[in-house]
Design a protein that fits this description.
Distance between the termini: 41 Å
Number of helices: 15
Helix content: 25-40%
Strand order of the largest sheet: 12-11-8-15-16-17-18-19-20-21-22
Structural class: alpha/beta
Shape: globular
Strand content: 15-25%
Number of strands: 22
Radius of gyration: 24 Å
């Protein structure tokens, strides 16, 4: 811990400070920051060092709060930054802090050679066509699965699943990826390792040394997920995790040193709600807290598990709350956003999640054929979906997330990031299943070149109607537009596509180079 002393330097933000304070590479650490001005509605400020954001804050006016001379102190463990916020006389505002949002905190410069690491949820999907989906009753469902698993199905029905989908999609975009999780030593585990290796994805085991136990026992085996497709192309999913009150790998109780090192080396740690099927809430929260401590950005997608976690055990509810409060980027569908906030409108629900969070920079909401929105402290961006022939939606959200991570890591504009994410998700929907069937770089490039968007003028109008108190709105249009008016910035697809294609071309060139 870097402790402040009486002689520690103070950076004073004057009354006339601009919303974004200039970055400085010469600031000594630890440092005290004193805000002396009375902020206006929606002012924001950030402090940077060596190009990395150490903290940022946003002020939203709150007229009912008339505190004068209020001071809030925020210490950052191992971060060397301690923040004091002082209100001017008569200021009725509320200041929300976001600390450790960059890749380095304080005076610790970390070499991060991994772009994204996924935590848990490494499984093998067994994709089968069935005459009807499994019954809902739990005992009948288990009997159904037991009959399926009585003998291993042909290997042609096996596919990498879970977080492997995100890792593979990200690797195909040129990101350096690592999958953190447990893989057994049986045939399914070997298959999974081979697939990830072929895609250039590293694997960091969470289980440590299992020599002292019977690693062939069922609880140590690779998790299987049966993906069942009926004649109407409806999906049903079941795994052994569905039939236990305990996580599949409940025997794991601590982060081993290899996992901690991997989290510290990565720029983004991704966790989703399905991770709770495998890992205990305490272990998942331990990964979150370690990531925050070492300055790693956390992406969280609660997925369909979000609602059940919110109604689950006290430990599950607490863990969900921690992730919603401490993640840097939260990704969900509009239905999932409503389930967590009780707000049906995806924009307002996203804004509510942003308000509840202490650290969130982006809230990404997926709306299917209506496109997607990205909500940040500074505004809202919206991009319509691509028009494709949908074959299978499994893995689309995972692929979308991979592209959001690409844009985040490469500091791309929000709208460009959304367009890329929509393209990657759409390209995956054109194939059957996930795993090795997620979007390829070639498919994504072809979609962007074609530029066939579902022009949804109603969604764009709704955004304008709902975002009356947002600083900036950025909308993508299929046709040429004449810039923006006031706080609305309209960009045509012809403005965005060339920049994306240039980036993706460089990925193609790098992949073509001999390793």
């Amino acid at each position: 811990m870097h402790n402040l002393t009486a002689s520690s330097p103070t950076l004073t933000i004057p009354t006339n400070a601009s919303p974004s304070y200039p970055s400085s590479s010469s600031l000594p650490f630890p440092i005290r920051v004193q805000f002396t001005n009375s902020f206006k509605t929606q002012n924001s400020l950030s402090l940077n060092r060596n190009g990395y954001r150490l903290f940022s804050m946003i002020h939203r006016s709150k007229p009912t709060d008339s505190r004068n001379g209020f001071s809030r102190k925020l210490g950052v463990e191992d971060g060397g930054v301690e923040v004091y916020a002082g209100y001017g006389v008569g200021d009725g505002g509320e200041v929300e802090f976001e600390v450790g949002g960059g890749f380095a905190i304080g005076d610790r410069d970390i070499d991060r050679d991994i772009d994204i690491a996924t935590l848990g949820n490494l499984c093998v999907d067994i994709v089968l066509n069935v005459p009807k989906l499994p019954p809902p009753e739990i005992n009948e469902r288990k009997d159904y699965m037991d009959r399926l698993s009585a003998s291993p199905p042909d290997k042609r029905y096996w596919e990498a699943g879970g977080n492997c989908n995100t890792a593979i999609a990200a690797a195909r975009l040129g990101l350096k990826c690592v999958a953190i999780g447990h893989v057994g030593s049986e045939i399914y585990g070997n298959f999974l390792l081979d697939v990830l290796n072929d895609e250039g994805i590293g694997v960091v085991g969470m289980s440590g040394n299992l020599d002292a136990v019977d690693s062939a026992a069922a609880e140590y085996e690779t998790l299987l997920c049966w993906v069942l497709v009926d004649p109407q192309h409806r999906h049903g999913f079941c795994s052994r995790a569905d039939f236990s009150n305990e996580p599949a790998f409940s025997w794991m109780n601590a982060l081993i040193s290899d996992v901690k090192a991997a989290v510290q080396r990565t720029k983004v740690l991704f966790v989703n709600g399905y991770g709770f099927d495998e890992l205990s809430p305490s272990l998942i929260v331990a990964a979150l807290k370690h990531a925050v401590k070492v300055g790693t950005c956390v992406f969280f997608d609660p997925g369909p598990r979000g609602k059940s976690l919110s109604l689950g055990t006290p430990e599950q509810q607490s863990a969900l709350g921690d992730y919603l409060r401490m993640s840097d980027v939260i990704l969900l569908t509009s239905d999932e956003a409503e389930a967590l906030t009780g707000i049906s409108d995806p924009i307002l629900a996203g804004q509510e999640l942003l308000r509840r969070s202490e650290r969130a920079k982006w809230i990404a909401v997926k709306m299917g054929t209506k496109g997607s929105i990205l909500i940040s402290l500074s505004g809202v961006a919206y991009a319509p979906a691509f028009k494709v022939r949908v074959v299978d939606t499994v893995g689309c959200g995972d692929s979308f997330l991979a592209a959001i991570a690409y844009g985040f890591v490469h500091k791309m504009p929000k709208l460009h990031t959304l367009v890329l994410a929509n393209a990657v998700g759409a390209a995956t929907a054109m194939g059957c299943g996930a795993g090795r069937n997620v979007a390829t770089l070639k498919q994504v490039v072809e979609l962007i070149k074609a530029g066939d968007l579902i022009e949804d003028t109603e969604s764009g109008k709704e955004i304008l109607d709902k975002c009356t108190d947002v600083q900036e709105i950025t909308l993508l249009s299929k046709m040429m537009v004449n810039g923006g008016v006031d706080r609305v910035n309209r960009l045509s697809f012809e403005d965005v596509a060339p920049e994306l294609l240039t980036r993706l071309k460089s990925v193609e060139v790098e992949e073509a180079l001999p390793s």
